[in-house]
Every structure is written in structure tokens, then in C-alpha cells.
From TrEMBL, chains A, B:
Belongs to the SIMIBI class G3E GTPase family. ArgK/MeaB subfamily. Residues 86-237 form the AAA+ ATPase domain. It comes from Mesonia phycicola. InterPro entries: AAA+_ATPase (IPR003593), GTPase_ArgK (IPR005129), P-loop_NTPase (IPR027417). Residues 1-25 have a biased composition (Polar residues). One of its GO terms (molecular function) is GTP binding. GO terms for cellular component: cytoplasm. It comes from the Bacteria. Pfam families: MeaB. This is Methylmalonyl-CoA mutase metallochaperone MeaB. Residues 1-27 are annotated as: Disordered. SMART domains: AAA.
Length: 361, 361
């Protein structure tokens, strides 16, 4: 959005006033305008050169979801795609308090020491309340955020799960094009976001704490089934013994599940992110998984299946967005929901009314 | 579909042949034609008169999902709606082998003795293999199926979950219009169908068996959280003791969940459907729930929330159906999925291609 400004280079050319301060101002203004104007081809070039500022700007563009930006977004994504797909995508989930940020910081720093480039995408679509906590996470990863080879990005909140999913999928592509070879996708294990993250990662890691009640009180049950590994965090000091006990219990529980298609038997590990213990072992496990599933073809198969799922998902998201974004529909939908609340209509009648309305728009 | 027949009343009028057998044949033929032609207003009238054949025909029409039937279907549903909404909708789930059919037959027969009219809608969208088993269920409910005041209907299989959901939602409306005051909706507790059934019922009942491993090996973990009651079936003979033990374990587990919005504390009951024990107690519990939630307003609130959900669901289903049903899209989608399989395209490019294509159609 360009704010109206009479003082442009054009309207300002009164005679031959060569006051240098004015030409400097103009130059700055033009710079500003250029900054605001998006050049998607240029952005792609900068991203593939590993420019984190460009990467960040492109993700902001994707997150804006403004219709006028759609062509630019498509150009950026299609431009980045040939450079994408070469990272390892790791999903990390766990209830609040399990120490996700500390764990990711420890893992991220370890990977950077191994000459990896690490991107962290943090997802929390649950509410604007947690928005603050995610931003908190960002600043909490104090060491990682300073690293040249790290890129940390929280998602904007207040969005639908479908919206967040698409943004994250597209952000992964961009991060990969920027040369990040490990993408850590963090999510809070209390909603439906884990299923989504599971559908876009190669390896899914569930963080747990030792101690009763955790599995019943916080985390959804289905999540354990999706995990390729459970890591019991904070396994230090007094917690060490209960953590070891929890490890053997989880191991028993995991053995009851049928073997997965990947041939991989989910593992249980102990770690103390705070004391930087167990991090290397976790990473070795993940690379073992990568190697064995690349060898038996499951890794590639899973990515293809995920791509098919994304194809349908992208279409479905777009169909919905096209429908619900229409101002007329937005307004009438609100009215119809109100009418349902007042028992004045039924879902079927209201749906048909809105669908018929859309045909006329 | 009318098969070509030269012998119609028109082409057959050769002279004045008054052979009575021909005019009888013609009459029969006209009757046949009338039968095949749908008169939705007449169907609504018959349904609201409690005619089970009409109800069955209308549900078949809904299941056909042929575009040419859409106006008729809409007329039927809108005609039935004013007579709907007066039943108690009970969802019943459990893994195969838990005795769902026997339990539903016992509960259904009990309710009919209480002068209730009972409709059973059986859902199993998982596969065509289980189609057989559901049809088996239908015949297995030998006593119930004979009752004048019972209506048993399995869903057609091989459909998407969204499709099954809409059919079931519409079938509920029709059954209610036909005067059925208890709708039992049966589903197999192994897929995502329980969440769907949960979203369209007032009370959600989970059938369990005593014995280890059941909860880990078969049923999805999230289901227990949705249950308003767990009924441990086959609590007879040697099973009685383990069932009582399981009861106290489940009770403990349920107490760990946070209190629900309804103010209802989920209950655990024992039953033996085979020996017709515990059925009355289960029904009393359900009516206690109905009374208490109608009193505190949660019952009505939940139905309104479900209606809002259905409104959005109906729109989303329709948007998808309109898109994917186009023959051109069907064909090109197949090609694009193949191209993903061969790494020749990406989900984003493929999705945009199909969406652009649809705009031109």
C-alpha cells in the first residue's frame, strides 16, 4: 500500500531547484517505493542465494494472503520449487511445558556445529493467546537466533488450520530453496495441528515428560500413534529415574502398535535439552531412520503420498477461500449463522441459499 | 432408466384390438413408469405419515447422489424439515467383535416395548469389504427388523467420509419426519467416522469389552474423550469379574479428563446384550443425560453448534463435489496424480493447473 504523497519526483519538479537535500530525499523515497514494490523474480534469486531477509519477506508475503499478491506468490513458489525438496523435514510436538523451545535450540545448535543450515517453523494455530507464547519462543531461542545458519520463523496466528497448513507447506519450499537442509517444524500437541505437521514431515518426534497423567491430561491420544520417536525430555537430576521408568513403559506401549509401513520400529530416547544431553543420540536416530527408509524406498514413497495429499488439500483450500472470501458471502454467512442460532433456519436451507447466492455473484 | 419398448400404449394402437390382456399390460406398464418417476411432494407426504417404504425410497434417492435428482432431494429434505428435530440421536461405536449389533438389537427391542419408534442407521465408510459385514448386521438384527416400529438402514459403502456424513445427516432428518423418536447411529470405532457421528448425535456411547489390549490395539485413542458413556458389553458368565474390574479402571481414567461443557460426568456401565442385562440401566442413563442437559440448556446449545458445523460442512462438501464431479477434471486429476507419482510435477503446479482448467469449463 502506497500512501498518497504529493512530494513525488514528478510533482516536485518545480523549475531548476537543485537543492541537494531534496534529491537525497527523493532517492530515499524511490528506495522506499522499490522496497514496497515486490519483484518476485528478484526475490527468488535472493532466496536461492541464501538471503534470509529475502526469505523472510517472501514468507510475509505468503502469510498476507492478499489476492493482489497471488501472482507474485505463485511466481516465487514456482521459482523456488526446482531448488526445494533436498532437506530433512522433522516435526516436533509436545504439550506446553515439555521444553520444546529448549530442545529445538539444543538440537539446532548441535546441527549448526555439524555444518547444517537449520530452519525452525513454529506453528500454533490454536489462538491469539498462544501467539504471544510463540513469539516468546522465538526470543527464548537466544543462542540459535544469533546463528548465521539458522532461520527461526513463527506462524502468524488467528488463522484457520487449512490456512496455516498451506503457509507452512509453502514456507518449507522457500526455506529449502534458501539452502536450509534441516527444517524443524514445531507444533503444540494439543490440537489438530500435529496431524497436519505429520502430513508434511519425514520424521515425527513427540516430546514427553516423565510423570503420571501427562498422556491423559494434555496430549491427544492419536499423536502417539503418529510418532516415529518419543523423546523424554528433562531427564536430568531427580527426574532421571522416573524418566527411565517412563522410557520402558512407552517402549512397551509402542510395541503394541502394528508395525508401520516404513518398517521402522518407533524408538524411545531420553534427553536433557537444558544440559545438552542425549541430543546427538536423537539426531543419530533420525539419520538412521533417513538412511534406512531411503534405502527401502519408503522415504520417497511417503513424500509422493504427501504430495498427492497436498495437491488435493491445495485445491480444497482454494475452493473454500474463493467462496468464503467474497464480501457478499461473508456478510450473508454471518446472517445465516445468526438465523441458525435463533432457530429460524436449518443448515441445509442456509447452505443452499449461500451456494445459490454465490452463483449469481 | 426406461428400457426401449416398442409396445407402448402409443405405438401399439393398431386398429381396435380390444384384447383385455393388452390393456391390463398397459396399465401395469403405466404403473411401473409412475413408480419409477419420483414425486417428491408425494414422498414427503408418505414419509410424514410414517410410511417406511417411502422413507426407504427417499434414502435411496439421497444415496444415489445423481445430479438429476438434486431438485427432488432438496424438495424432500425441505419438506421433511418442519417435522424433524424431535428425536433423541444416539451414536454407538466400538471395535468389531464388541457386539454392537446384538447390543443395538437388545436396546432397540427394549425401546419398542416402551412404545418408542426406533431407527438404526449403520455407518461404515471404511471399505467395500466391511459393506458385507454391515449387511450382515442388518440380517443379524433378526428380531428388531421384524418390528413395525423399527427401521434399519445400512449406508452404502465405497463413498468418501464427507459423502457418508451428508447422507447420514439427511437420513436422520427423514427418519425424524417419519416419526422415529430414537435414532441409533452405529459406527465402527476404527476410523474417522466416530468424529463424524459424534458431530451429529446428542449422546455418544462407546462399547467396550473387558480384557487387556483392546484400547491399544483397536480403537483410536481420541474416541474415549468423546464418549458420554462407556458400556462394557458381554459382562456375563466368566466375563463378569474382569468386566467389573475394567469398569473401575475406565471410571478412574474418565475422571482424569477435564469436566465437559455439558456438566455431564461420563459414566461407565456394564451390560450383557446377549442376556438382555443392563439395557434398561443404559437407557435410563441416557434419558437422565437428556433431561439434565435440556434443563441446563446444553442439549439445545449443542444442536445449534452442530447445525452451524453442518452448514459449513454442507457448503464445503458441495464446493468439492461441484469441482471434482466434472468429467474433464476427473480425467486431468488422474493424470496429475500420475505426474506426481513420476516426479514430473509438484502439488502446487498441479493444483493451479486444475483450478485454472476449471475456470475455463
Amino acid at each position: 500500500m502506497i500512501t498518497p504523497n504529493k512530494n513525488t519526483a514528478l510533482s516536485n519538479s518545480q523549475g531548476t531547484n537543485s537543492n541537494p537535500s531534496i534529491s537525497t530525499k527523493s532517492a530515499e523515497r524511490i528506495k522506499e517505493l522499490r522496497k514496497k514494490k515486490i519483484n518476485p523474480t528478484q526475490l527468488v534469486k535472493e532466496i536461492t542465494n541464501g538471503n534470509k531477509t529475502a526469505l523472510s519477506r517472501a514468507i510475509t508475503l505468503i502469510e498476507s494472503r492478499q489476492i493482489k499478491h497471488t501472482p507474485a506468490i505463485n511466481t516465487i513458489i514456482e521459482g523456488c520449487l526446482p531448488y526445494a525438496n533436498n532437506s530433512l523435514r522433522v516435526g516436533i510436538t509436545g504439550v506446553p511445558g515439555v521444553g520444546k523451545s529448549t530442545f529445538i535450540e539444543a538440537l539446532g545448535n548441535y546441527l549448526i556445529c555439524q555444518n547444517k543450515k537449520v530452519a525452525v517453523l513454529a506453528i500454533d494455530p490454536s489462538s491469539s493467546i498462544s501467539h504471544g507464547s510463540i513469539l516468546g519462543d522465538k526470543t527464548r531461542m537466544e543462542e540459535l537466533v544469533k546463528q548465521e545458519n539458522a532461520f527461526i520463523r513463527p506462524t502468524a496466528s488467528g488463522d484457520s488450520l487449512g490456512g496455516v497448513a498451506q503457509k507452512t507447506r509453502e514456507s518449507i519450499i522457500l526455506c529449502e530453496a534458501a539452502g536450509f537442509d534441516v527444517i524443524l517444524i514445531e507444533t503444540v500437541g494439543v490440537g489438530q495441528s500435529e496431524t497436519m505437521v505429520h502430513s508434511m514431515t519425514d520424521f515425527f518426534l513427540l516430546l514427553k515428560l516423565a510423570g503420571a497423567g501427562d498422556e491423559l491430561q494434555g496430549i491427544k491420544r492419536g499423536i502417539m500413534e503418529m510418532a516415529d520417536a518419543i523423546v523424554i525430555n528433562k531427564a536430568d537430576g531427580e527426574n532421571k529415574k522416573p524418566a527411565q521408568q517412563a522410557k520402558s513403559e512407552f517402549r512397551k506401549a509402542l510395541h503394541l502398535y502394528p508395525t508401520t509401513e516404513s518398517g521402522w520400529q518407533p524408538k524411545v530416547k531420553l534427553a536433557s535439552a537444558l544440559q545438552q544431553q542425549g541430543i546427538e543420540e536423537v539426531w543419530n536416530m533420525i539419520t538412521t531412520y533417513e538412511n534406512s527408509t531411503k534405502e527401502n524406498g519408503y522415504f520417497q514413497h511417503k513424500r509422493k503420498e504427501q504430495n498427492k495429499f497436498w495437491l488435493l488439500q491445495t485445491i480444497n483450500d482454494k475452493l473454500k477461500a474463493n467462496f468464503y472470501q467474497q464480501p457478499e458471502i461473508k456478510e450473508k454467512l454471518k446472517q445465516q449463522l445468526k438465523a441458525i442460532e435463533n432457530n429460524e433456519t436449518t443448515p441445509f436451507v442456509a447452505a443452499n441459499f449461500l451456494l445459490d447466492l454465490a452463483k449469481e455473484l
